[in-house]
Amino acid sequence: MSEPSEFLVFGATGQQGGVIARALRAAGREVRAFVRNPQSEKAKALAAEGITLAVGDLFDRASIDRAMSGIRGVFSVQTSSPSGLVTDEQEVAQGKAIGDSAVAAGVAHLVYSSGGAAGKGPTGMGHFDSKSQIEEYIRSLPIAATITRPASFMEMMMLPGMGLNTGVFTFFMQRGQSMQMIALDDLGRINAKILCQPERYAGQTLELSGQHITGEYLEEAFSRAAGRPIRYQRFSEELLAGNDFLRRLTTLVDDGVVAGVADIPALEREFGPMLKLNQWLSGPGKALFEEALKAPQAGIALR
Q1: pTM of the model
Q2: Would you say 55 and 36 are in contact if contact means Cβ atoms under 8 Å apart?
Q3: Cβ atoms of residues 5 and 30 within 8 Å
């Protein structure tokens, strides 16, 4: 970690942090990635692309402080409790620790990746309300900050257990109900631009999405991409009655809290065209889609 870097990216071996670190590097910026295990395949891949590795643990404030040295801008994202790796309280503590460390190090700009359900009142689901708590804390700090709230990722639909391999895809919306989604590639380039232009985006909270998608649209797009019929259905009432997590999450989709409220035309004027699902399926998401079509049958991946 001897090389100077402009930006420090947390979660760099995960989905969001990885695309943002690579988007910054593609823009010619020096990037430092905070990783727990530098010998992991994902960490090695980052290093091979010219990204400096800062080894540490989000439960170890001293390692966060060491990684912050000499940094101009920070991208902060934390794992949520549905992963089974942290509690909601630990997520909040980690988000606060990154913010505090950035202030102590004199970092000029902090970008915090929150979630589409945050900032809209209590949801009763800890992994959403935790992000609202982190947002509030960051706004209280003496640092220029931007908060981004991504909608659901298109990549999320490729998780095992959603049914693409069975010909019946199951998700949260009713067939005619709309839910906003965004491709990770768009999330990466948008956050990279925000980091590179802090004077333009500091103090803002941005809802991020690329497209309104209905269950009927999913059925049509997936069937076209697969070359065979893929039927869409919402999670059954029987499943929802027996799965408290899915039931509460589906209720928040129905209430609009998780459905997404981004102004997509305004985002496209600011950041350029967003990937639509059909483009994603034939481009960045093609390999994931084909893998999901061939996957062995499994239970619902969400918890």
Answers
A1: 0.93
A2: yes
A3: yes
